[in-house]
TrEMBL record, chains A, B:
Keywords: DNA-binding, Repressor, Transcription, Transcription regulation. GO terms for molecular function: DNA-binding transcription factor activity; transcription cis-regulatory region binding. This is Transcriptional regulator, TetR family. Residues 31-50 bind DNA.
Length: 197, 197
């Protein structure tokens, strides 16, 4: 058992080295050789963990979404939707030293997935999960009679989800313009705008 | 004069070849050699147009924003804000065969700009211009007394801008989910939600 744990931990360390290379030098420089060097491993020993660059990329991209899912799982929900929903969506927003690098790497993999079919499959799965989160948010607001009547659910799901991803990319690119405070105000304002007064 | 025009036209053709390479095979494959091949030019003759890969990237990224600006300049505005604003923001959304490839390439350059300081400068300029467009939209709605009273302008600017960029990236990644009709409904619904009934 400890060996399996070590193996998984080591894979995560390699993936985190891949994240650092991608953030510092771009996807173009994220070769197995450069990632091995960043991780302090020989190219040969990388084969213990990943059989190909493609497998390493897949694992490194997936690790981002797993970290997000883990944070969501660990939220201590209060049961008050208007408190819980902002906390929930904050887990997918780049607001601190852990989540800003994650989001940068995620966008790099998303763009890479446009010309990489394996990564595209993973990206679609994560996109489906994310959209499902907004389906549940709008559904919960409606069930608790908090949502405005006559909302077009499909449109509100897309609008909330797009807002959060737009804020995420703007926060990564212009943290000096789109501050943490502005992001939180925008999320709260959006929630308020789809709810009864 | 014709020579200068030809030279500019040829540069645009090379940049469009760069777009195609980036879309097909990713930024990693967008070497001067591969772009020359796609453009039907020798690597040697590429030097007539661009002195370096960096200059070629800069020009190719800038061309995307110039195409957007040209479309905006050519809009026949009606003077009715609630008609004109959706038409305006549609120019930065990937809704057709011209604008979908543009947006894909734009996102690839945005990610590249995270590890490329020259592209980062250009990206910030375009981001400033885009944000200014939303400043003007919210200002115009307020001046014409169409906006809801008591809006927090700064937040509404960020919220509208983030929504549009979020819709743009979702439309590029999942056109089968986020259809043209849904995008247009989301934009109209957003506009309605910040305006008086």
């Amino acid at each position: 058992m400890p060996k399996i744990v070590d193996h998984e931990l080591q894979k995560e360390k390699v993936a985190e080295a891949a994240w650092r290379v991608i953030r510092k030098n771009g996807m173009e420089q994220a070769s197995v050789r450069n990632i091995a060097e960043e991780a302090g491993l020989s190219v040969g020993s990388m084969r213990h963990y990943f059989s190909s660059q493609s497998e390493l990329y897949m694992y490194s991209m997936k690790l981002v979404s797993e970290r997000v899912n883990l944070r969501i799982k660990n939220i201590a929900f209060t049961g008050e939707l208007l408190t819980d929903i902002p906390v929930l969506v904050q887990q997918i927003l780049p607001l601190n030293e852990e989540t800003i690098p994650e989001m940068e790497v995620w966008f790099a993999f998303v763009v890479k997935s446009m010309s990489d079919p394996s990564l595209a499959v993973l990206r679609k799965q994560v996109d489906d999960d994310m959209r499902q989160m907004f389906v549940m948010i709008i559904q919960a607001l409606t069930d608790q009679n908090l949502a405005l009547p006559d909302l077009d659910y499909d449109i509100e799901i897309e609008r909330f989800y797009a807002l959060i991803d737009g804020l995420a990319i703007h926060a990564v690119l212009r943290p000096e313009v789109l501050t943490k405070e502005k992001i939180e105000s925008a999320v709260n304002r959006h929630l308020q705008s789809i709810c009864r007064p």
